[in-house]
Amino acid sequence: MTQYLVAIHLPDGYDPAVDEDDATRADIAALNDEMKAAGVRIFVGGLQPVSRARSLRIKSDGKVIVTDGPYMETKEHVGGFWVLEAGDLDEALEWGRKAAIACRAPVEVRPFH
């Protein structure tokens, strides 16, 4: 079995307390329950707002600098994720489809090495 990352992409400024209604939260909770019951969920995590991110970069002189914000400047960021164990990519994509519906957001599915 291969492990897959199922990442939820959210727009900058997204605030679950404001942008998620009770129906969305219920759908996400139901999906988590379904993943647990199917035995595919390894780990799940929601991330703090992108404003809380810090990026570390190594400079040519070998020093590491820390800057506020995400590594890449984009209009979307990873807001949460699941690590699943699935039999194949098709199964992982099916869970990703369910995640996109429950979260009402774009989802990326990617296998681990």
UniProtKB/TrEMBL annotation:
Signal peptide range in chain numbering: none
Superkingdom as given in the UniProt entry: Bacteria
Pfam families: YCII
Residues covered by the YCII-related domain: 16-100
InterPro entries given in the database record: Dimeric_a/b-barrel, YCII
Residue intervals passing through the bilayer: none
The family this protein is said to belong to: Belongs to the YciI family.
Name by which UniProt lists this protein: YCII-related domain-containing protein
Source organism of the structure: Devosia geojensis
